[in-house]
Design goal:
binds flavin-adenine dinucleotide, about 25% helix, three-stranded antiparallel beta sheet, binds iron/sulfur cluster, six-stranded antiparallel beta sheet, alpha+beta, single chain, about 350 residues
Length: about 350
């Protein structure tokens, strides 16, 4: 299935257009980022989104960003048969005696235990927490966790290799909404690299007090303000590769443990160096590079890899566990590999695909 975007791309603000044009003259191919802001550039006065400066990384105070709540959860509550339970932690899935079906879910609601039964169970806790829930739900029939006959549950966690580059030029950058520009020219390599490097996009515009958080040494506030006023802020993403040893487990005390060793770092480091050399050619002269630490598990995917072979994967191609008839995992867990682009549109597209399958089969 494919369809046109509902609105034309958000145009670049003047300074970003200049940067896009300058990099385009070097032979690169600037493109507009896909955005989930509810703004029709052909009719801005009647659009909910006012194109403000706080879009990244804050929730929208006027409900003009089509995030999960606005686009999915709130509309779903219009149906009489949908109830959202807040402050509710799913702690365990219970199976029947054969171990073939989940029959009940145990939850904690404001500290109290409750149980719910259903015909079909769909887990969407995010990659790390979905694996943790299935591991915690182990029982006599599934001693290593639900859906884990392959031994792959919790494994192949991927996180992306990310760096931000705050690039400073003499020319000020008074942009409000910066996140409109991207480049895929080096996705599969570059003239000097015969291996994939990744994707380049913008971040939200840096503020001086945000720069202070990761600036080396103690830089005086006026210098930080100058840097923020003149900075263009980039975000570079490279793929990390599935590794069965990068995994989620549960400790004896019942806590989630994540073992993770980064990989494919050379490609990312080369990418970050190379992008700075391009930016130097278009008059940027100072760079603050911040590689995102492992503790930021922002783009977590993997842990319940999908595939057709039950010996090597946790989920089948419809995201149902190979081992249990009525248990699905529908979130970022299914990714067998993650590419170098933001994961959420793929997570959403897959969820819609699985929803169609469920609609047809239940
Ligand atoms: C700061 C930040 C910026 C990001 N920016 C981008 C971006 O620009 N583009 C992009 O594509 N992606 C971005 N991401 C990543 C994106 O948010 C995730 O890829 C996406 O939300 C993952 O979707 P999911 O359904 O797998 O899990 P989630 O969205 O994490 O949903 C899981 C839900 O399950 C709930 N939950 C977990 N365990 C339990 C339990 N036991 N019981 C009950 N509920 C539970 C959680 O509270 C959560 O609401 C960003 C992430 C962060 C943190
Ligand atoms: S936060 Fe600002 S830019 Fe983002 S959707 Fe809301 S109004 Fe638009």
């Amino acid at each position: 299935m494919s369809a046109e975007y509902p609105y034309p791309a958000l145009p670049h603000e003047p300074r970003m257009q200049e940067v896009a044009d300058a990099l385009g003259k070097l032979g690169l191919h600037p493109h507009h980022l896909t955005l989930a802001v509810n703004r029709n550039v052909d009719d801005p006065d009647n659009s909910p989104c006012i194109r403000c400066g706080t879009c990244d990384p804050y929730p929208c105070k006027i409900d003009a960003k089509l995030d999960a709540q606005i686009a999915c959860v709130d509309p779903a509550t219009a149906y009489d048969n949908v109830e959202i339970k807040i402050n509710t932690l799913v702690t365990k899935l219970i199976t029947d005696d054969s171990g073939q079906k989940v029959t009940m879910v145990e939850v904690e609601v404001d500290g109290n235990q409750e149980q719910y039964t259903a015909d079909t169970f769909i887990i969407s806790c995010g990659s790390i927490n979905s694996a943790a829930l299935l591991l915690r739900s182990k029982n006599e029939q599934h001693p290593d966790g639900l859906g884990n006959s392959s031994g792959m549950l919790g494994r192949n966690l991927m996180l992306h290799n990310h760096s931000s580059i705050v690039a400073i030029a003499e020319k000020p950058n008074p942009v409000k909404f910066q996140k409109t520009l991207g480049f895929n020219d080096f996705y599969f390599g570059s003239p000097d690299h015969d291996y994939p490097l990744g994707q380049i996009q913008m971040t939200g515009k840096s503020k001086w007090n945000r720069l202070a958080l990761f600036a080396p040494g103690s830089i005086p506030q006026p210098t930080l303000e100058y840097m923020a006023d003149h900075a263009v802020d980039w975000w570079l993403t490279s793929e990390d590769l599935p590794d069965p040893n990068n995994r989620v487990t549960i400790t004896e005390e019942g806590k989630i443990k994540v073992d993770f060793t980064r990989n494919n770092l050379k490609a990312h480091e080369d990418f970050v160096d190379m992008w700075q050399s391009y930016l130097r050619k278009v008059d940027f002269f100072l760079f603050m590079v911040n590689t995102v630490p492992l503790s930021a598990v922002w783009h977590q995917v993997g842990t319940c890899k999908f595939g057709s072979d039950p010996k090597t994967t946790v989920l089948d191609l419809n995201c149902r566990t190979h081992d249990l008839d009525n248990l699905y995992v529908v979130d970022g867990s299914f990714f067998p590999s993650m590419g170098a682009v933001n994961p959420t549109l793929t997570i959403v597209a897959n969820a819609l695909r699985v929803a169609d399958h469920l609609k047809d089969s239940l």
